[in-house]
Amino acid sequence: MSFAIFSPKLLASGRASSKGQPNESYNPYLAARRAWDERYGDQIRRAHNWRALAFACSLIALVATAGVVWISARSRIVPFVVVTDNLGRPVASGLADQASSADEQFKRFVLIEWLENLRLVTTDGIAQRKAIDRVYSHIASGSPAQTLISDFYRNNQPFLRAQAETVSVDVQSVLQNSEQTFEIEWVETIRDLYGAVKEKDRWKGSFSIAINPPKDERLARINPFGIYVTQAAWSRVL
What we know:
Blueprint: H1 8-19, H2 28-74, E1 80-84, E2 90-95, H3 104-119, H4 125-137, H5 144-155, H6 158-161, E3 165-176, E4 181-192, E5 197-211, H7 217-222, E6 227-236
Antiparallel strand pairs: 1-2, 3-4, 4-5, 5-6
Helix pairs in contact: 3-4
């Protein structure tokens, strides 16, 4: 048993033909197919359009994601680094990818700060202790400089000297003799406890350094550039 679906338009056409001449081209199966297309064709086309649109959106999203990944992989942000001293004065600057722990300006900065801490005498006990700690944090272990500095502090104890006077250091020049040797000239101003200047002395010293970048966080905190004094010698300029 089979059934056929007829649209009202086709039925009317069939009835019209039955009243007049018979419609020899009429096919009930084709009429059923036309009725099916009229009823569900629009829905099928809409579904096809939505699928095509969803595919296009997915393709656009994929291309955009790939583009973002490609741009992020190729782009670089290079910071500009400025190194300052304890007073906030800039002593070195440059692009981060051009800077290194062995940069000449960093060497000069570390040596100047190290010398100021070494020769400093202050009535502030906490500041004096921090200065001594910074001095030893930039001395190579087992080097001649370590022996020299220990003897210097033993014979010139800054805490005892601070009971009568203070000493400040003003570096005048830093001359680099080789990649690891520097010659420094400075002036020491000696004041009494009331701030009056007692005398000014000119000094000249020779210092050698070695580069050993820090490998852990503790060393990076106390000596971030990995610059260590290996040898030191100085004398008063007459």
